[in-house]
Amino acid sequence: MDFSRRRIGVPAALALALAASGCGGGDAPADPDRGAGDRSYTLTITRNAIEGGKNTEEAEWITRTVIPRFVAAQKAKGVTAKVVFQGQGVDDEPYKTKLALDLKSRSGADVIDVDGIWVGEFAQAGYLRPLGTVAGARADTWDGWAQIPQSVQRLATFEGKRYGIPPATDGRVLFYNKRLFERAGLPANWQPKSWEEILAAGRALKKVPGVTPIQLNAGTAMGEATTMQGALPLLAGTGTEIYSGGKWAGGGAAVQQVLGLYETIYRREGLGDPRLQQEAQGRDKSFAEFAAGRIGILAEGDYFWRDVINPETGVAKMKDRDRAVGYALIPAVAPGKGIRGQSYVSMSGGSVSVLNPNTDHPQQAFELLAFMNSSEMHKARTAGTPEITARTDVNREILAGDPFLSFISEKVLPVTAYRPGLAVYPQVSTALQEATAAVVSGRSPAEAAAAYGKKVEGIVGGAGNVSTG
Q: Does pLDDT of 450 surpass 80?
């Protein structure tokens, strides 16, 4: 799944914020042991998947594997369990709205799948509660946590508390064309250690006729892809996150540094094609140009490898992908200068499976949630279609024959970061996209950063909620 393409619409975010002022799920039952002794019970699962429609594989996995095996396991313990799947097959926005209304009215399914970027928003509205609050101590002592890296657990974490279990995730890297690198005199096994080394490779590629050296998503036409594939990894590379310590990154030195790299690539040195960033189908065109050998370096998510240039099923097939395409970690501006003192960074997305705080059977609901995220069920879900799960033990087994996905699992996920799951994030993201567009169009990084900072202050409620660093 291309998580970078999943957008959160502003109307529903505003509706959710307004709903939070009413009587939401905040007064849900707090007893994690209610119904724990029941020997017969019914649970429901919902996610945006439906057999024969959207995410059909997910729906089939739940109905044909998870439910019957869970019911059988409960029967072996002398417990009669009934599990009902309430599949949806709609756009993300209507799905999100329905979840919000269900949780606000203290109804809805027991186990729910949400986009990770909604977690904080739903938690602030009182619709979700930490797993430990809903299901008690067993939620914190689940043995599966040892198999999910702390970096990946952040997807399901808000203000230091876990709200669910992330079943899968993704990562951003630098893709490069080895054949073009050879013509430019660059190494086949390229791993830049700084932004300057990316620029140096771009300068070498510029000497190859008919080649755009670097494609770094910019502008509003590319939407969230600009933020996730471009601005946010770069920001992380300066040691700054878009939201940290209760404050949003303003137009200070870190954002100016990011915009300065855009200026160097697109204006000062002509290492990128500024027109591509302004076209309505610019991202898709960048895919086609990379596949045709006309772009040297491209910052993208693992979706690009799996679904775009896939030799068999890709929308921009590269028959020689495995021989012609290399991939590298995204470096910090300089070694050790990234977030958490890292030398390499990434951004990831994904869904989170959470418990409805209003469930009548929190212990049984958590048992189902843990079962769905067990090693056995993850392997069943990914059978025939390897993907990066949240579990390192599963990844080591199912990705053993896939060097690229193993690279994402072993090298990228330990250094990754996630977007803040707050209602105003989409507006902040758009402001950041506009800042990159301004620089690509000719404004100075300082001017674009100042305009961005002022806009963010208006979005998040004043300068007191914005960092100037």
A: yes
Cα dihedral angle (375, 380, 383, 387), rounded to 10 degrees? -50
DSSP of 342-364: -SEEEEE--EEEEE-TT-S-HHH
- Region of 106 (left: φ > 0; alpha: ψ -120 to 50; beta: rest) is left
**Phi, psi angles (nearest 5°) of residue 103:** -70, -35
Q: What is the CA radius of gyration of the chain?
A: 23
Write the pLDDT tens digit of every residue in 160-197.
Answer: 999 999 999 999 999 999 999 999 999 999 999 999 99
Provide the CA 151 distance to its chain's centre, in angstroms: 12
Cβ atoms of residues 226 and 436 within 8 Å: yes
Q: What angle do CA 331, 460, 126 make, to 5 degrees?
A: 100
The sign of the dihedral angle between the CA atoms of 48, 54, 55, 60 is positive
Number of C-beta neighbours around residue 78 at 10 A: 7
- The whole-number pLDDT of residue 384 equals 77
Interatomic CA distance for residues 262 and 264, integer angstroms: 5
Yes or no: say if 202 and 213 are a contact pair by the CB < 8 Å rule.
yes
What DSSP element (H or E) covers 373?
none
**Residue 47: what are its φ and ψ, rounded to 5°?**
-160, 165
Amino acid (one-letter) located at 133: T
Domains of the chain, first to last: 3-168+350-418 (3.40.190.10), 172-347+423-467 (3.40.190.10)
* Mean pLDDT across the chain: 93
Query: How many CB atoms lie under 10 A from the CB of residue 207?
Result: 11
Residue 26 banded pLDDT, cuts 50, 70, 90: very low
Q: Which residues pair with 162 in a beta bridge?
A: 157
pLDDT of residue 14 exceeding 60: no
Q: Which residues contact 312 (CB under 8 A, 6 or more apart)?
A: none
pLDDT, tens digit (0-9, with 9 covering 90-100), for 70-106: 999 999 999 999 999 999 999 999 999 999 999 999 9
CA distance 267 to 264: 6
Task: Give me the helix-helix angle, 445-460 and 253-263, nearest 10°.
Answer: 130
Scanning the structure block, which residue is given the tokens 């939620």? 139
Euclidean distance between CA atoms 175 and 421, whole angstroms: 28
Residue type, 362: P
